[in-house]
Structure formats: structure tokens, C-alpha cells
Amino acid sequence: MNGRMIYLIGPSGSGKDSLLDSARDALAAQGCRIARRVITRSAEAQSEAAEVVDADTFARLEAEGAFAMNWYANGLSYGIPKVVDEWLSAGDDVLVNGSRGYLPEARRRYPDMLAVLLTVDDHVLRQRLHARGRESAEEIEARLARNAGFAETLMAGESEGLCLLDNAGTLAQTRERLLKLIAEHRLPD
Q1: Count of CB atoms within 10 A of residue 181's CB?
Q2: Distance (Å) of CA 183 to CA 30, 49, 98, 177, 179
Q3: Which pTM does this prediction carry?
Q4: Cα 25 to Cα 97: distance, rounded to the nearest angstrom
Q5: How many CB atoms are located within 10 Å of the residue 131 CB?
Q6: What are the E-state strand segments in 40-173?
Q7: Which of 13, 81, 89, 102 is the most exposed, fewest CB within 10 Å of its CB?
Q8: DSSP letter (8 states) at residue 20
Q9: What confidence score (pLDDT) does residue 111 get?
Q10: 8-17, 34-43, 65-74, 126-135 — which one is most confidently predicted on average?
Q11: Contact 116/27 with Cβ under 8 angstroms?
């Protein structure tokens, strides 16, 4: 594969979707495509540009080999369409909104990938999750506790090659740092 997989991860509420929306045009200008995920989530709860399918449709797509990567997290199924491999082969970089739990498998599948962890202070994350209104206060606190566990695990065993991207500033600042990070870690031709 000539392009590079860029695997963006971070806790729910860290701003991944907003960052991707903000960076879409600039990434395209750099030859980087953003993969559209397939998710088993109701359209009413949808905040990202994803293809929403029911569980049966997802299972059928998975059985047909429609996904380059897929995982199950937080009660939902996620899939990255197989077309990303064509894009990589054509020389395009591909940015994926991934899963922290799936990171080891993604690294096995794409050994040269650039893994980027979007971070945000727990206080800000808590506010964002409350504002989103999808979960109860107890569910949010459980999510924050899981996030702390993921952070410890990532830093202990998966941190090699993991680039941290702080989303504490403005969206424009984070977007520029993402673009710079990708440019600095571009694979040689």
C-alpha cells in the first residue's frame, strides 16, 4: 500500500467528529481521504457523518467481507468500508475515526499506520458529554472511569508510535496541529 492509514482515536466527546469536519477540506488538499464509518446507531442520535444501519444489515455486511476493519464498542457495531484499501493502494492517505480498544488489531492490519490520540481534560469531557444528552450522569461517570483505564493501558502498552493531540484549545488550533502532525509523519515516497 502506498498511502498511509491515519487512525484517530479518543474518548467519546473529545471532539473527533468536529475535528474531522473542520479538517476535511484541508486534508483533501493534502491527498488524505476521511473514511465514512458504518454504525449501528439510530439516525436520531447521529452526530457524525456516518452510514447508519441496523444490526442485521451490519452483520450481513460483515459476513460479506464489506469491512477493512470492524469492532464492537459501547453497545454499537462500527465498520470501516473495504474501499479504504483501494484508496491506500492508489497512494492516498486515509484518516479513520477509530476505536482505542481496536488499536492493537488496527496496527496488525496496517503496521505503518499513524495512530493519533485526541485528548481533552476530564472536566471539559464531562461537560461535553452532559451537553450531548445521550447518557445519564451515572453513565457519563462510568465512561470517564473507562477513559482513565484506557489512557493507562494505552500509555503502558500501546504508546509506542502513538501521537498525542491535545484538544484543549480552539478547534482551529487543533485542526492546524493535526495537519502539521500528519505532514511531519508522512511516509517517504
Answers
A1: 15
A2: 9, 24, 20, 10, 6
A3: 0.84
A4: 16
A5: 8
A6: 51-52, 67-73, 76-81, 93-97, 114-119, 162-166
A7: 89
A8: H
A9: 93
A10: 65-74
A11: no
